[in-house]
Each structure stands twice: as C-alpha cells, then as structure tokens.
Amino acid sequence: MNFYVPSATVDGREIDFLILALSLVSCAVLALVFGLILLYMVRYRAESGVYRGAPGRKTWRFEISWTVATLAVFFALFIWGGDLYVRLFQPPADALQIYVVGKQWMWKVEHQGGQHEINALHIPINRPIQLVMTSEDVIHDFSVPAFRIKHDVLPGRYESIWFEAKTPGTFELFCTQLCGVGHYSMTGEVVVMSQPDFENWLSGGAPAGEREDLAAAGKELFTAHGCSGCHGEGGVGGTPATTGVNAPALAGLLGRSVKLQSGATVTADEKFIRDCILTPDKTPIAGYPQIMPSFSGQISEEKVLRLIAYIKSLKSGSRT
Amino acid sequence: MSDAAAHEFQFASAEHQRETAISGIWLFLATEALFFGPIFLSWIFARHADPSAFDVGGRRTDLTIGLANTALLIASSFAYGVGLALIGFGRRRGMVAWLAIAWALGAAFIGLKFGVEWRTELSEGLFPGAHFSIHGPARSGAQLFFAFYFFATALHGLHLLIGLGLLAWIIIQAERFTAENHTPVHVVGLYWTFIDVIWLILFPLIYLIGRAS
Amino acid sequence: MRDAAVQHSYLDDGRTLRSWLLTTDHKRIAILYIVAITFFFFAGGFAAFLIRYNLISPKGLIGSAETYNRLFSMHGILMVWFFLVPAVPVTLGNFLVPLMLGARDLAFPRLNLLSWYLFMAAGVVALYAVVGGGVDTGWTFYTPLTSFYSQGHVIAAVVAIFIAGFSSIATGLNFIVTIHKLRAPGMTWYKMPVFLWSLYATSVILVLATPVLAMTLLLLAFERIFGIGVFDPAIGGDPLLFQHLFWFYSHPAVYVMILPGFGVISEIIPAFSRKELFGYKFVVWASIAIAVIGFLVWGHHMFVAGTSLYSALVFSLLSYMVAAPSAIKVFNWIATMHKGYIRFDAPMLYAIGFIGLFTTGGLTGLFLAALAADVHLTQTYFVVAHFHYVMVGGMVSAYFAGLHFWWPKMTGHMYPEMWGRAGAIIIFVGFNLTFFPQFLLGYLGMPRRYFAYPQHFEALNLLSSAGALILAVGYILPLGYLTWSLLYGERASANPWGATGLEWTTASPPPTENFAVTPIVTQAPYQYRQAEAVNHE
Amino acid sequence: MTAIVLRLVAVASLMFALLAAEFAATFVFSGWGRGGVAIIAITMAAVAAFGFMDLHQEDVTVWLFAAAAVLWLTILLGLGSLDPFTRSLFPTNSMTP
C-alpha cells in the first residue's frame, strides 16, 4: 500500500508542498486542541482536588489574540493557494494544444495532426501541454491525480487546463464529476513519453492499434454484429425483398430529421443513433415495426462511437 | 375569536399578538423576496450571455398589456390601502367595497396576462423549444428570454392567484373584523402589495430593458 | 410537587392518536419530529451501509452501477434534507425554544404543526421517489445531467425537497419571531442561552436561503419538463448558474446543520464543567457572523467548475473569513473546561467527541479553501471525509449530546448512563475508522461516486467499510437503550444535571403550559457556582 | 381618515408619475438608458414598501426583516453575477471532434 505517489509535474510538486504545509498547520492545531482537552479532562476532573484559583474575568484579550492569529495564518495560506491557482490556469503561449471531448462515458482526444484516441492521452515529456476541453452532453471533469490537476468539462463551451509532465510513465485519468450511470467507467490513462517516442507515436508507428480509423473499425462491427443483416450492406436500408424485414436506411442519416411513432420529430445526431442502438424501444421510428434488438451491454461505448463514425461516413447518395 | 380582547395563551395581550403577526408576515415577505432572487439572477446570467439576442426576445413582448397590467396592480394596491384604512375606522361595508375593487383589478391582471398575452404569445410560437418561431442568429438568446419570461410570469401569476384567494377569504369573513381587531386584513394587504412590488421589478426586466438604449 | 407535575405533564394531556396528530403544543410536535427524523436517519443510514458494502471490493459488490448511483443519491437526499437540516432545530429546538425563553409556546403554534405535516408530506414524496425507482443524480442535482439525461424520479425528488423547504422556512420563521417577541420579562438578548442564539442564526439561514433553493429546483423542474430552460447550454444558458444558486443555499445549509450543534455544545460544556461559558458575547457573535459570512462563500464549491479566476479568488478569501468564527468557538469551549470541575456523563463525552471531530473537519476545510490544494482534493474522497467529519462526526454527535442531555426533560426518564457512555465512545472510534482512511483515499486521487475503483485503493476502502460496521453498532445502540429508558428508565427530577437555564426550573416532563407562573429573569446564563455538588437523585 | 386616503392618493400618483418616468427613460431620453430604468424601478419598489405597506410605521424588528431581505438579495445578485461578469466565454458551436 503506497501512501504517497510523487507528482509528475512541477506545479503538482508545489501543490504537494502547500498540502504539506496545510497538514502541518492542521496537525499543530489538532495537537493543541486534543492536548488541551485531554489535559483538562485529567487535571480538572470533578474528583480532582487540584487548586483552581480564582476564576478569571477578562476574556477579550484571549479572544482578540486567537482571532487575529487565526486570521493571519489564514491570510498567508490564501495568498499561497491563490497565487499557485492563478498560475495553474494560465497556460503559457507556447503550449502544445490538444483537444479533449468528454461524452457519456468516454474521453475522446484529438491531436493537432488529426490523430484520435479514446480514454487515453499521449503527451511528450518536458513540454507545456494545454488541453482544450468540451463536453457533448453533461458536465464531466478531467482529472489526473498524478498531475494534481482537474477541471470540469462543460457542454457548450471550452474549458482549458495545462501542465508540464516531468516524469515518463502511465498515469490514471478519472472523470470526477458525476455524469450518469457509467461515471465510474469514464477512466483512462495519460501516457507521458519522450519527445522522439511521441513523434513516433503520432506518426502511427507505435503503439499499434491506437490509430485505427474509426469509420473502418465501425464497418467491421457493422457486419460482425449483424447490423447489415437488416439494414443492408452499406446501410442502404432493408425491405422484405432484400433483407427479409423493413429496416430504415442509415446512409445519410446523420443530421436528418426523423419522425418517431410518437409523432415527435427529432434530429438524428450522435446521441440519437446511440439511443437507437442501445435502447431502440425508446425511439421507435414511424413507418417501421419496432423489431430492432437492444445492443445495450453487448457493445462498448467505444464501439458505439465507431459505429456512429461509420454511419456518418455513409453518403446519402446510396439511399434507395 | 370575535371578542376584541381575545388572544392566544402564549401572548401577553391582543396588541402583543397583533405585533407578532405583523412581524411574522414581514419576515415571510423577506423569504418571498429571496424566493424571487434566482429569477432575477437568471435574468442577469441569461442577458449577459448574449445581450442583443436576449433583447430581441424582449422586444417581442406586448408593451401595451404590460403597461396596463402595471397600472392595474398599482391601482389595486391603492384600493386595498383605502379598504384597510376604512376598517381601521370601523367602516366594514366600505372596506368590503374597496377590497372588491382591489380583487377585480387583480383578476383583470390575471385575465390580461394569461387570457390575452400568453395566448397570443403561445399561438405565435414564442414558447421556447423546437417550434420556436424566432429564427436567425438571435434564436438562442430569444429562447433564453422566453424561458425566463414564461417562468417568471407564471410564478408571479401563481402568487397573484393565491393573493386573490386570500382577498376573497377576507371579503367573505368581513363580519369578523372590527376597528380594533382586523390583523388578517392588514396581513393580507402586506402580501397583496408585495406581489405588486415584485411586478414593479419584473415589468422593466421583461418589457423595458430590451427596448431601452 | 413532583407528583403534581407528573399528573399535568404535556405527555399526559390526551393520550389518543388524535391528541398527538392535531396538537399545537411545541413539545408534542418536537416528539412527532423525533419519531420522523429517526426513521429518516436510519433509512439514510441503511443506504450508507449498502454503499460501504459495495465498496469493499474494487469491482463493486452490489452488481449494478445504476443501483449504486441511486443509493448514494438517496443517502444524500434523505440525510441532508430529512435529517441533518431539520435534526436539532425541529426536535430540540422546538422543544426548548419556548422553555428557554420562558414562553408558553412558539409564536405561531399552528404554523408549527403545519410545518410537521409539510415535512411528512415531503418525506412521503421522497420515499415515493425512492421506492418508485430512485434518483441517480446525487443530492446536488447538477444540470444538465439532471434536467436532460437522468433517468428516474427527478421531479418527485425535487418536489419532495421543495415541500421540505417550506417546512424549514416555517420553522425558521417561527423561531425568529418567537425569539424577538416572546422573551420572558427580564430575558434580554444577552441573557439568552447560546443555544437560542445559535438557533436564531440557523433560522436566519433557513428563512433566507431555503427560498432560493426552492426556486432553483422549480427552474430545474421547468427545464426538465419542457426540455428547455435557463440552464440549458444548447440555447446559451449557463449550467454554472444552477451551481451558483444551488450552493447559495447548500453552503449556508451546512451552517444550518452545524450551528445548532454549536449551541448544544455551548450548553453542555459549561453544565458539565460547572463553569460559566468562556467569552459568551464572542460565542454569540461568532454564531451571527457565521450565519452572515456563510452566505458569502458558496463559490468555493466551484473552484474547478469553470468560474472566473477573479471570483475564485474572492470566494477563497471569504471562505477563510468564515473559518475564523468557528475557530473562536472551539477555543472558547476548551477555555471553558479550563479550571472547571469536569464530569464525564454521556452528553459531555459526546460533546468532547464533537469538538475533536468538528475541529478535524474544520481544519480539512482549510485545505479545500486553499485554491490550488482544492484543485487536487476536490471531488475526491477527501471532500467526502471532510464533510462527514463536520456533518456526521460533528452534527450527529452534537444531536446525540443534546438528546441525552435533555432526554430526562423531554421524557421524564433517565437513560442508562453506562450504555450512554459506551455509545459515545463506540461512535467516536467507529467514526474515525470509517472516515479517516477517506482523507488518504482522496489525497491519492480516488474520485467520489465511483461504483468500482482501481485495485490499489482497496485496502483503505476495506478499512473504511470495517469502520462503518462499528459506526452502525454505535448508532443502533442509543436507539435501543433510549427506547428501553422510556419504559424502565429511572424517573428524572426537574434538574438532574444541576444545570442553569429556565427549562430546568420546570418539571420533567414539563406541564402543557410550560410554566405555572411566567418566570422573571434576573441572571445571566451559565451562573454555575464552582464545585457545586451535583445531586443525581 | 381623509388624511390617510389623501396620502394613498398621493402615493398612487407618485407611482404613476414614476411609471411615466420609466417610459421616458426607455424611449425618450435615450442617454438615460437602462441605468435610469433600473433606478426608477427600485425607487418604485421602495415607494410601494413605504407608501402602501407602511414600513415607516413598523417597529425595529420589521425594519430588520426588510433590511435583511434587501441585504441578502444584494449578496445573491452581487456575488452571483461576479462570476459571469469576470469570465471570458468561448461558446462552442460544433460539438464533434
């Protein structure tokens, strides 16, 4: 059991130092409080015959002195914490920008060169990194305990944090803002690599498999999970003549308006497609019998994302 | 209870009980003021996010009805004040007459607000959502305005409805009140005017700020 | 004398169910409340127990993340709004405010009864929300998770809290007006016991913060029902607005939970040290200062939420300001013990436990007020441990301290002293074992509200769950022996502790009208004569 | 009694005058703008509190309660708007990576 994990960033070490100072202050106060209580409990217990002396009258001197002392210590701590905090959220101009999108329940990372990764973030060592983050749905929170950093990721705006890792290695990444059922699974890893390794990784050399094209992977899943059995190869849609059942066409679906059996019209965005795959009973499409099985629990969120990427890539021209 | 000197056993006198009731209602009104606080703060947040789009929404409101309603509420508070003054001199029938006027003015507010204004706005597709009828770059901000508008006016209207109920109750119970003993008339009056005060703040937030320059 | 008092005690004034359910007697309403919040305490505690059970294993033992989320949401909602916020004010407060003031009842007895019915109605709706499937948003209801994405009975939960809020407002309003208007002759402001001052400060918060929460929840419900609203980021609304409004209530609500505890402790420490409270005026004004400054610090819950850096700095500075009055109180209690004649009856043991746990909780609050440290520690188990030290270690200890202290007054029976002391010690030990490991977990980075967690957090979680078992025993124990004492407990005299205060001058249990003759107050509170013999009867 | 009614008439007239001033601030004197409207609205609320609700006749307790409401509203609105007014917003339109 390890009770201390050294910080992998310079600022993180400063935060540790601040926490250490706070701990020392707290321990001193606790020792004083517990010490005095225990001392008085023994010395002034009712049975004890110790001489109590005449009761003191003037109290305000004590009150003023411990109030002022407390406030002075507090103010010093405020300055310390505040100064560090402002630095923590002011990225240097030369920082390497990486985009992060939080979504129920995964982290999607996009590098400048268009490289994507999911639930993982590869960064070079000794270089300031600025993450520009947004959310597709609810509030998430990007937290790397080893870097002593976290920040909420809000829908509809960009939030940003920055850090400069000094230690190579793999570190835990958590979502620390309750974001729904899968909150606990919204974890990943931050991999700190040397600059050459990072260049190598960016160009797709290593580690293998990370840079798989999302849509191509989705296409494989589309066949493997039998989607094409009803919706047809290439998602052209099914009829009793072609696939045996009536199934809506998926090509060109994204962004289109879809009429539901309830009469409501919704825009087919990523979330809608995700719902259709995982909870089809909740989104029956007008004009089609609801026979689509739920894939909830059978395919991971990442796979859903790949399927969505594939469906996105299907051009509406192939619609029949 | 109709005995002027009667008071509950925890009070020293009827006057003591009256004073306590009045301070109680004032504290309740302080609570109510904070109750409307989040509405004002959401106005600040929403308008600050995109002032010009928010004001586009504000200019779609019906200024005539807004003005008429403000006048109705001021007049209504005035009428209640006269009624309260009359019962202070023991003139119960005069009080009933003026309170009835206050009630009617309040009811007219409700009629105009929900029967005419809301109905027009709903039919014009001004309720935020998929069918919102303002398009273009101001669409989002205007929706934010109307989300605020419908919520704030609904809540204010609800308070006014409760006030109408209390006023009706006072009128029905008029027999109970005398020059010395009419605390409930006083208490309801404070609440009634307070609804007016809230509207005096909501009115410019809804109708005027968006049109001002 | 005693026989006469027993005959006319408020408990004997009607024995039918109707005489209880339609009572306007503040003492009977207090008893009704005790029954209700005891139920909610154990319901919320049961959820906590299941949470700790789940966390024994890194993979989660209850099998479903959804169930887990519903459990901690239920735990939070029940404990915050149906136990911690009402606990001391509606039970001890309801019982004691008129007695301590020398009044016959609260200013608005019917409003008091109404507030109990509102509370019960809220409880029923909350239980419906739980039984009907639960809520998975946490007790904080952050948008847009709650307004657009959450499944479950959000509206029912929101309605429950809305109604409970009005119950709080009614109670707070009643206390403030009563303290202003119904003080006995000679009971000037500075002759009031600190318990009344702290209830006054509490009521200020209840009356001025609760309506903000009520409206915020209405806005949330509006957004959820109509699918659009002022927090909706899709139309430019600000989800942080919700957090500002929520914490405008919920941070002061923390003081609603702890201030009455301060009051209880300020009564008990002098009584069992046989000594005047040290620095009465400082303690009094510290309570008022907390109630006011407590409203200026809500932003410290949002240091990583995306608020502006300026507002974070302002809120951090103000947060330190509110810590100072709390520190004043701790030093004053200790100074009160200095040169006293200290007795160790159960209320005193609970009170001393309170000081220790509250101080720990308060000091760890400094970590969270220090901006940069907060960035690392917030939203982890550090925060969980911090507020449980204040709320559970502090507040529940204070509630039990007060319950034991005034139990003879309320019921006319003594509780079994040895069991009382055993309970206090078991709770103290179990509590520390449960929550201290969580500070370490938080520092190591374990996030809150995780159904399953990485392997390396297992040992500390196991320790915490083991502590929870001891804590559970500690809480069930008083339920047992206090119930026992109702039937078999020794008869209590009017003033079994030899304490000062008007409530001890009337019979135990008090007659319906509290005082046969309205008392006239001439003395400052806590005029204990040193070395005065305590007759235990 | 006539005195009370006359006073109420005066208060109501003042209110209508202020309402007219509010309109003038909005439409006629464009320089006044929103600040003028805000000041007049707060004045009207105060006039209603003193003129119709007779705040001036009440005892110190009531004054305390009314002052508390104003103070706490100021805290809520003041500290609450501190954040958005000192924050730079970067709205996102496209949500896909």
Description:
The complex is a heterotetramer of chains A (320), B (213), C (537) and D (97). Chain A has 3 domains: 7-32 and 65-88; 96-202, Immunoglobulin-like, CATH 2.60.40.420; 214-318, Cytochrome Bc1 Complex, Chain D, domain 2 (Orthogonal Bundle). Helices cover 34% and strands 19% of the residues of chain A. Chain A has helices at 10-43, 60-88, 195-202, 214-224, 227-231, 270-278, 301-313, and strands at residues 96-103, 106-110, 116-118, 120-124, 129-135, 140-144, 149-153, 159-163, 169-175, 188-193, 257-259, 265-267. A 5-stranded mixed β-sheet of chain A has the order 3-2-1-5-8, with no helix packed on it. With 213 residues, chain B is mostly helical. Chain B has 6 helices and no strands. In chain B, helix 3 packs antiparallel against helix 4 (92-123) and helix 3 packs antiparallel against helix 6. The mean pLDDT of chain B is 91. Chain D has 2 domains: 1-53; 58-86. In chain D, 75% of the residues lie in helices and 0% in strands. In chain D, helix 1 (2-28) packs antiparallel against helix 2. The model of chain D is unreliable at 89-97 (pLDDT under 50). Classes of the chains: A alpha+beta (320), B mainly alpha (213), C mainly alpha (537), D mainly alpha (97). Chains A and C meet through helix 1, helix 2, strand 7 and strand 9 of A and helix 4, helix 7, helix 10, helix 12 and helix 13 of C.
**Main beta sheet of chain B:** none
Cα-based radius of gyration of chain B, to the nearest Å: 20 Å
Which pair of chains has the greatest number of interface residues, and how are they split between the two chains? Answer: A-C, 79 and 92 residues
Mean of pLDDT of chain B: 91
In CATH, the homologous superfamily of chain B goes by the name Cytochrome c oxidase, subunit III, four-helix bundle
- Backbone CA Rg of chain D: 20 Å
Computed structural class of chain B:
mainly alpha
CATH architectural group of chain B: Up-down Bundle
Order of helices and strands of chain D: HHH
- Low-pLDDT residue intervals, each spanning 5 or more residues of chain D: 89-97
Question: In DSSP terms, counting alpha (H) and pi (I) runs of 4 or more, how many helices of chain D?
Answer: 3
Content of β-strand of chain B: under 5%
Q: What fold name stands as the CATH topology of chain B?
A: Four Helix Bundle (Hemerythrin (Met), subunit A)
Shape call of chain B: elongated
* Average residue pLDDT of chain D: 85
Briefly say what this structure is:
The complex is a heterotetramer of chains A (320), B (213), C (537) and D (97). Chain A has 320 residues and is an alpha+beta fold. Chain A has helices at residues 10-43, 60-88, 195-202, 214-224, 227-231, 270-278, 301-313; strands at residues 96-103, 106-110, 116-118, 120-124, 129-135, 140-144, 149-153, 159-163, 169-175, 188-193, 257-259, 265-267.
